[in-house]
Each structure stands twice: as C-alpha cells, then as structure tokens.
Design brief:
The complex is a heterodimer of chains A (about 300) and B (about 270). Chain A has about 300 residues and is an alpha/beta fold. Helix content of chain A is about 30%, strand content about 20%. Chain A has a single domain, classed as TIM Barrel. Chain B folds into 2 domains: about 80 residues, Translation factors (Elongation Factor Tu (Ef-tu), domain 3, Beta Barrel), CATH 2.40.30.10; about 160 residues, Nucleotide-binding domain of ferredoxin-NADP reductase (FNR) module (Rossmann fold). The N terminus of chain B is likely disordered. The chains are: A alpha/beta (about 300), B alpha/beta (about 270). Chains A and B meet through helix 1, strand 5 and strand 6 of A and strand 4 and strand 6 of B.
Chain lengths: ~300, ~270
C-alpha cells in the first residue's frame, strides 16, 4: 500500500502536526474532549460549530446508526460566546473554530470572538439541517462570497466548509475563493432521511438530517476532485474517511489533508490507528500524491 | 453494521443501532412519581447500561434498564411526561443497550438515592449485592423495597424519617465497615454521589467505587461529545455511564454539568 512521509503540513495558512484532523461536530463541544483528541494523535482539531446565540439543537432522536454510515440532525447546539472560555485549556494548540451565522455580519461577529485563541476559522456554510444557517446560505454563491469576505477581512486563516447538496459544488468553491478563503473543506454531510417502519415516521426528530460515514466517501472524492480542477486554494478532504487508504485516495483527488469525524465511533484512537499505516520514513512526499489522479 | 458486535464486560452484545420499535406491555406505578414501563422485547444487557428511548413526537432520552425488558422512569421533563401519557399497547422505539455496566464484584455495597435504584436493582437480583442502602425523600418514594429486601441486607433512610433512619442515604454509611466490600456501586442525585466519593476516598478505596453518571446526551454512542466530562474528556455515554471513583475525584463531578447547548450549570 502507498505510504507517505511523516511531517508537518501547512494547509491554508495553518500549521498542522500531521495530515489527520478532527472534523467539526464530533467530540468538539468541550475543551477537554478536544484536548483528548489531540492527545490521541489528531494533527489539529475543529470545534463544534459556534453561532451568534446559544442553541439547544433539535429534539431527539438526533442520530441513527446505519449499516454504512450515520444519519444525524443535531441542530447546531452550541453555547455561543461562552465557548471561547472552553478553549483556554488549549492555548497554542492547533485548534480551528468552526462557526456559523445567518448573515455576513453574524459570521464576522462570531469569528472576532476567537481572535487570538485559535489557529484559524472554519465557516460552516454547509450544515444541511438548520433553517436559515449552513447550507441554506452555503448553496448561494453570492452569500458564500460575502460571508467569506466578512471573515477573511479579520486576518485569521479562514477555511470554508462546503455542502455537497448543490448541483455544482465548484460554483460554491469558486465563490469562497473569490471571498478570500485560504482553503476549502469538502464535504459536509449529505442531506438524507430514514423512516422507522415500526413507527411510520422519520427516525430523526428533525425528520431529515445529514448522512456521514463510509456511505458518502465516494461523494467526497468526487467533490474534492472537481474542486481541485477549478480552484487554486488548498482543499481539505472530509466525508467518510476511515482508513489510511481512504486518506491517500482523497489526497490523490486533490486534498492536502483530511478531516475525520464518524470514524471516531468505531475507534476513538482512529488518528493513531490511521497514522500507523499512512506514514513511513521511506514513503512518498505528500506533495507528490496530492492531486496525482488528475495527471 | 458499521462495527462488529462488541462484547461488553459482562458479555452482553451491543446491538440495535437503528431504532427498534417495541410495544409497551406493562406499566407499573412504583411510587407517586415513578413508573416502570416494560416492553415486548428483552435485551441482553449489563446492569448500568442504558437505552436511548424515543417517545414519538416528543424527544429521545437515555434511560437505564431496570431489567432486561423494562425501564423505570421519574417524571421530570417533556420526554418523561410523554412516556407517562402512554398506555399499554402503545409503541416507542429504542436504541441500545449502550455504555458500560458496573464491574462485577463478589461482596458489593450498593447505594441508591431515589430513582437511582433502577440500574442497581438487576445487580441485587443477580445476587451480587451484600448490602443495599436505599434512600428517598419519603417512605412512599422508596423504590423496589420488597424485591430488594428479599435478596440483600436492605437499609433504608428517608429525608423526613417516615421510614428507616432520618436523613440522606449517606448517613447509613457511618455505621458500615466500608473496607469489607470489594465494590461500592452508587447511583442517585449527584451531590449524594459526591458525598459517597468523599467518604470512600477518605479511606483510600475510591478505585473500588463506581458511580453511574447522568449527563445530557444527544447521540448516545460517543460521537457528538455533549456528555463529555472535565477534565478527562471521557464520554459518559460510551466510556461510562459507570465511572470509577478515582477517575472522578478531580473532575466536574458534583460541581457542574453542561446543558443541551453546552453551557455549564452548577449542580
């Protein structure tokens, strides 16, 4: 199997210890759980998405485990500004704050709270199950550009996480690039639904939600591949990555690093597990892998 | 299934990741505020494990199994009130059993406050518990008195003194030789549990004590992080809900917990 040479990565203006990051929305609600993931080998961690006001999220059920993935609709629960305090235990660590808002002004306000406490900002323009937020904004190129610009102006490295629930993801990627984004993160969850046949109603309290895990990996690869063809800024691959080979594959599509979320379910030390087979001292330099499937 | 079936400590299989529809077959009024709901599908489980219980149209909440086919519920919020509105024959759906269970002991001391007796009942019925300290606000709120009296040395405390010793259940600890037990297992209000932890730590046996924690949970399977405790980041739903006393001494336990939004609230 293909291995890559270990070493730090610079992805979109952020220095990361390795290619494997914790994705937003997984074990990212407290400083303690983020610290734990860093101690288990994550190269950097992305927080739970933080918004302008505290939110309890949707009523349950918020998650269902499927044969090949997970369906969730958490509803962006977050403590809002109070979360900045959670990060006090993570001073100087590679932490990226995921944020959301309903307008460019709200994005800028929330991003500003994190100035000085994080290595960068990831804009959640892609959550598929929060009315007025996430993909509701993230499927409109002009809004994506405006929200991105409102944050990049603040001078922090800014990544934009994209939704796959659009006809052409490259339109959205180009809009983020135009807004000054330092990197794209592709992809967030895929809008989906399951129904309990026993109860005759959708299994999520919010009815529909986002699909993650192995089932969406082919969609992630395709989106990264398309974005690599159309955008110049770095891409972070995300969506269903659960093995070293998956990481290599999405890097070949064009990703400079990967975010891992759902795979934490079967192995809380997934970062260490993947690193063991991903890296070897005589491996290929990662720059030779990134995007090689396009040649 | 994403994960091959894992055996838990006592040998139960983790299962039912997708909501399993069950029919309520029995409702028993245990006390004026507590009811047991039994359903038509028994689960292989370890005492201490819980189900995510979906009350259709209301919410989904974690509830400890009080037997292979029942949960014992106190009416405290929307979802539990929703459960109390259900009748025999109504359907709910459950995911689980999730989390770990109490470690096995041979000479166990169980300490329960209020509805905290629910996950400890199956341990007592399995003949694992030498002494069972049971506390409640008042006599009519004591849970499972007859069943526990048959299988353990049951000692009772009530806040108002209507039955047993007057005071919190922890007053019963003063007359016990804690060193005589190989495990001390505790479930109940967190301040009561913190008092027990203080007492076992005084004599240096906190590593032999176990506490069943309650935290706000969304996913129930260790992914979302809403139930993580400080400063370890342990997930109550997956690494717990039963946690050893030595992991809890320097922690948020007894101090604060987080609400649905993740904001801290003092206990």
């Amino acid at each position: 199997m293909v291995t890559i040479r270990p070493g730090p990565v610079n992805a979109g203006g952020i220095q990361i210890a390795n290619h494997l990051l914790l994705a937003a929305g997984v074990l990212g609600t407290t400083g303690a759980s983020l610290t734990r993931m860093l101690s288990y080998g994550a190269g950097a961690v992305v927080t739970k998405s933080i918004g302008p006001l505290p939110k309890d999220g949707h009523v349950g059920p918020c998650l269902a485990v499927l044969d090949d993935g997970f369906l969730n609709a958490m509803g962006l629960p977050n403590p809002s500004k109070e979360f900045v305090e959670e990060l006090s235990v993570l001073k100087g660590k590679p932490v990226i704050a995921s944020i959301y808002g309903g307008s460019p002004e709200e994005f800028a306000m929330v991003a500003e709270w994190f100035k000085g406490s994080v290595a960068g900002i990831e804009l959640n323009l892609s959550c598929p199950h929060a009315e007025g937020y996430g993909s509701a904004i993230g499927s409109d190129p002009s809004l994506v550009e405006a929200c991105t610009r409102a944050v990049t102006k603040l001078g922090m490295p800014t990544w934009v996480k994209l939704t796959p629930n659009v006809t052409d993801i490259t339109e959205i990627g180009k809009a983020a690039e135009k807004g000054g984004a330092d990197a794209l993160v592709a992809i967030n969850t895929v809008k989906a639904m399951r129904i309990s046949t026993g109860l005759g109603r959708p299994v999520l309290g919010n009815r529909s939600g986002g699909l993650s895990g192995k089932a969406i990996f082919p969609i992630s690869v395709r989106c990264v591949y398309e974005l690599y063809e159309t955008c110049k800024i770095p891409i972070i691959g995300c969506g269903g990555i659960s093995s070293a080979d998956n990481a290599i594959e999405i890097m070949m599509a064009g990703a400079v690093a990967v975010e891992i979320g759902s795979a934490v379910y079967s192995d809380v030390r997934i970062f260490e597990t993947i690193a063991k087979t991903l890296y070897s001292d005589d491996g290929i330099p990662s720059k030779d892998i990134v995007g090689c499937a396009h040649e | 299934m994403m994960v091959s079936l894992q055996r838990t400590l006592w040998g139960a299989l983790m299962s039912n990741q997708f909501p399993l529809t069950v029919t309520i077959t029995g409702i028993r009024e245990e006390t004026p505020t507590v009811r047991s709901f039994s359903f038509d599908s028994p689960f292989e489980f370890d005492p201490g494990q819980f189900l995510m219980v979906w009350v259709p149209g209301v919410d989904e909440i974690p509830m400890a199994l009080s037997s292979a086919d029942s949960i014992t519920v106190q009416k405290v919020g929307d979802a539990t009130a929703g459960l109390f509105n259900l009748k025999i024959g109504d359907k709910i759906a459950v995911r689980g059993p999730f989390g770990n269970g109490f470690f096995k002991g041979e000479r166990m001391l169980a300490i329960a406050g209020g509805v905290g007796a629910a996950p400890l009942l199956p341990l007592a019925l399995a003949d694992r518990v030498m002494t069972f300290l049971l506390g409640a606000r008042t006599e009519t709120e004591l849970l499972f008195v007859d069943q526990l009296d048959e299988c353990t040395d049951l000692q009772i405390a009530t806040d108002d003194g209507s039955l047993g010793v007057q005071g919190f259940v922890t007053v019963l600890l003063d007359d016990l030789n804690l060193g005589a037990y190989d495990k001390v297992v505790v479930c109940g209000p967190e301040l009561m549990m913190r008092t027990v932890l203080g007492k076992v730590a005084e004599i240096g046996i906190e590593h032999r004590s176990e506490f069943a924690l309650q935290r706000y949970m969304k996913c129930g399977i260790g992914l979302c992080g809403s139930c993580c405790i400080d400063p370890s980041g342990l997930r109550v739903c997956r690494d717990g809900p039963v946690l050893s006393g030595d992991l809890l001494i320097k922690s948020e336990f007894g101090q604060y917990m987080r609400d649905a939004s993740g904001r801290k609230k003092t206990i």
